[in-house]
Structures are given as structure tokens and as C-alpha cells.
Amino acid sequence: MTVRANQLPASARQVVDTAASAGGTLLAAAFGTLARVRRGRPLHPQGATYAATVAMTGQGLTGVPWLDERGLHRVTVRVSRSAGLPLWMPDVYGIAVRALMPDETAVDLLFATTGDTPTGRFVLHPRRGVERGPLSTLMPVRSERGPLLLRLVPAVPGPVEELSLPTTLTLSCAIGRGAWHDVGVLAVGAPLGPDAEAERHDPVLHELPGTEQYPTLRRLREPAYRAARRVGTKSPQ
After folding, report:
1. Which residue from 232, 206, 202, 201 is spatially nearest to 77, judged by alpha carbons?
2. Which of 10, 25, 90, 197 could connect to 126 by a Cys-Cys bridge, CB 3.0–4.6 Å?
3. What one-character DSSP code corresponds to residue 107?
4. Rounded to whole angstroms, how far apart are CA atoms 233 and 230?
5. C-alpha to C-alpha distances, 50 to 8, 96, 145, 194, 197, nearest whole angstrom
6. At what angle do helices 215-230 and 10-38 cross, to 10 degrees?
7. Hey, which bits of the chain come out as E strands?
8. What CATH fold (topology level) applies to the domain 45-212?
């Protein structure tokens, strides 16, 4: 049986919250130091940004309107390598998706290469290419249906050039460790110019309407993004 954080005794919740706050402080220190050394993004220092569209199929599975309602949305996507290691070495790839809501507010969804088992979707997985497996949002967000995760999988397997993307990726959702359900298709278009690379992505600041960060995960993530902003960036990605 899974015990949710809000079902824990008050003393246990305090221990979890304290540990998350301490972890957030450590991550903030690490991100801040790395950002100062690199004079920019602490992670995902080099990348490429593309125009794209997401076609939602209208499955109505999540209680999140943007995911549930049929429609075509223009987005931008950035592909990058987390540690910025030499290209011949495996690295954790990231895909940052930015969408604009009808009121022009930005939404950021960050995906990283992970495993594909019910447990592996929560574990980072270095790879030699972004096309060699799934990418998940790694940390769940709260939705009316439960802890929501998203996943991107290349629709047609095959090699792509470095810091480019498969032309089509399938967007799926899952609740916790449950089954994945396809909800849309991401079609990657033309590369954008250097100005697009100046954009920063922050899933804590730019939440998808209908979702929210779990308080414990917010305590863990938010200080790192704040530390990166202090040295001239808006987020680690």
C-alpha cells in the first residue's frame, strides 16, 4: 500500500519537509556554484531550440485542459545535454517544451532521459543519443487524478544528428507508476535562431494550469532555480 505524504503523521511530515528543505539548500549551493563557474546555465549549457507543434488527441485522461482537449498548439522545444560532456560520452539528455496559454502566460515542461519501467521512469538514464529511449518529466505534479507524469518517446526510432531531435515524438501521461496513455504528438520543425537559446525554462515558476508542484518537491526544486537566476539565468535548463 502506498502512503501519501499528506497521510503521514505530523511528525513524519515534518521530517520529510525538513529533509526536502535541506536537500533544496544543497542543490541551490551546487547550482549557484556551477552557474558562476560556467557564467550561465549550471546544467544543460549547450543546446538547440526548434519550432514545433503539439497535436492533442482529446483523450480526457488527466483533468488538465491543455492535455485533455483536442487541439493543435504551437510550442518551442530545446534539446540539450545535462552535464555538457564530450559528445562521445553518454549524458542525460533534456527536452524543454515551452507553450503559451490563451492568456499568453508561459508553461514549461522539462523532460529528461529516464528508464521505462514503473520505477525507472523516476531514474535519470545517461545515453549517447536523445533518440535511444524515453524521456519523462521525472518528478510528478499534483493533478485532480493524482501524481501526474508526462513522457516523450520517438515515434520512429532512428539516429539523429547531435543536438537535433526526431521529427515526431509521442506524448504520453501516467498517474504515478500506472500505465502510460498516449495523449498527443509532438512534431518538430525548423531550428530557431540564437535569440531563442537565450530563453530559460522553469517548471516551478511556469506551471501547467490544472497542476501544481507538491510542497515537498517544491522545497527541493525551487531553491536551485532561484540560485541560478541570481547569476543571470532563470533556471537550470
Report:
1. 201
2. 90
3. E
4. 7
5. 44, 10, 32, 11, 10
6. 20
7. 47-56, 71-81, 93-100, 106-113, 135-136, 141-143, 146-154, 168-175, 181-191
8. Catalase HpII,  Chain A, domain 1 (2.40.180)
Enter the C-alpha cell of residue 84.
Answer: 555538457
Per-residue pLDDT at 20 exceeds 50: no
pLDDT tens, 175-198?
999 999 999 999 999 999 878 777
Q: How much is the mean pLDDT over the chain?
A: 79
CA 42 – CA 34 distance, rounded (Å): 5
- How far is it between the farthest Cα atoms of the chain? 53
Q: What is the pTM of this model?
A: 0.77
Question: What average pLDDT score do residues 126-149 get?
Answer: 92
Average pLDDT of the segment spanning 103-132: 92
Q: How confident is the model at residue 172 (pLDDT cuts 50, 70, 90)?
A: very high
